[in-house]
Design a protein that fits this description.
Elements (H helix, E strand, L loop, with lengths): L7 H16 L8 E5 L7 E4 L12 E4 L17 H10 L5 E5 L30 E2 L4 H8 L4 E4 L3 E6 L2 H21 L11 H12 L3 H13 L2
Parallel strand pairs: 5-6
Antiparallel strand pairs: 1-2, 1-4, 2-3, 4-7, 6-7
Length: 225
């Protein structure tokens, strides 16, 4: 197998991310996390095709700008790895991506109801969560645009971040925001969503606190047997 260009710390964070999201039921036997290589920005790293809760450092593989494994890598990769590669190509500032089939999010991809930020932890959704009916590659990256989250009709969601910590945070709280929005829709309305300005401010504030939940989630994920 080819040697990975990513640091040991980044590999450990990817392992933790897979397990964290599986523990919180954002990922199940399906879904995946990736990160752009710090040393080779044109490449990204993600696990071989394996259930997220079982991922280890030895499962990581490096892919090129076309989402293809490096020469000498013969293990099976995820079919949906092209989602990651095309977003990295289109968005140089994106450093990590999560793709999931998050259950509370699915209804928003098949109805006219928009997923909107209902509380400060989901504030990053102020930029919108457009729906794409073609799940892979360039079309998905185009629909995501400059946003943080994109939904796929009858499929799930993809979120981006400026690092593994932020991508995990956003994947987890997109699921939670969707759950709360579905609950709020059953109460007397209308729902008072966060405004774009409130969303921007809360997103900036949350970015300064990511180490707090990350420390908790990572410790729990890597010590769980």
């Amino acid at each position: 197998m080819p040697r990975l260009s990513a640091s040991r710390r980044l590999i450990q964070d990817l392992v933790a991310a897979s397990r964290i999201l599986a523990a919180h039921e954002v990922l199940d036997a399906y879904g995946h996390v990736s990160a752009r290589s710090e040393r080779r920005p044109g490449r990204f790293v993600m696990s071989r095709s394996r259930a997220p809760a079982l991922v280890t450092a030895a499962d990581m593989m490096e892919l090129d700008a076309d989402s293809e494994p490096l020469p000498g890598e013969h293990r099976k990769g995820f079919i949906e790895r092209y989602i990651h590669g095309e977003i990295y190509r289109a968005r140089p500032e994106v450093m990590a991506i999560v793709h999931s089939h998050s259950p509370s999010v699915i209804p928003f991809g098949v109805t006219r109801t928009k997923l909107r930020p209902i509380y400060h932890m989901g504030s990053f959704l102020w930029s919108g969560a457009p729906v794409r009916d073609r799940p892979l590659g360039q079309a998905l990256a185009s629909t995501l645009g400059a946003g943080n989250c994109v939904l796929m009709r009858g499929h799930g969601m993809t979120v981006v971040g400026d690092g593994v910590q932020e991508a995990v945070f956003r994947a987890l709280y997109t699921e939670m925001n969707a759950r709360l929005q579905l609950q709020a829709a059953q109460l007397e309305g209308p729902i008072e969503f966060l405004s774009d300005e409130e969303g921007r401010r809360a997103t900036d504030a949350n970015r300064g606190t990511l180490e707090r939940p990350w420390e908790l989630w990572k410790k729990s994920a890597l010590t769980r047997k």
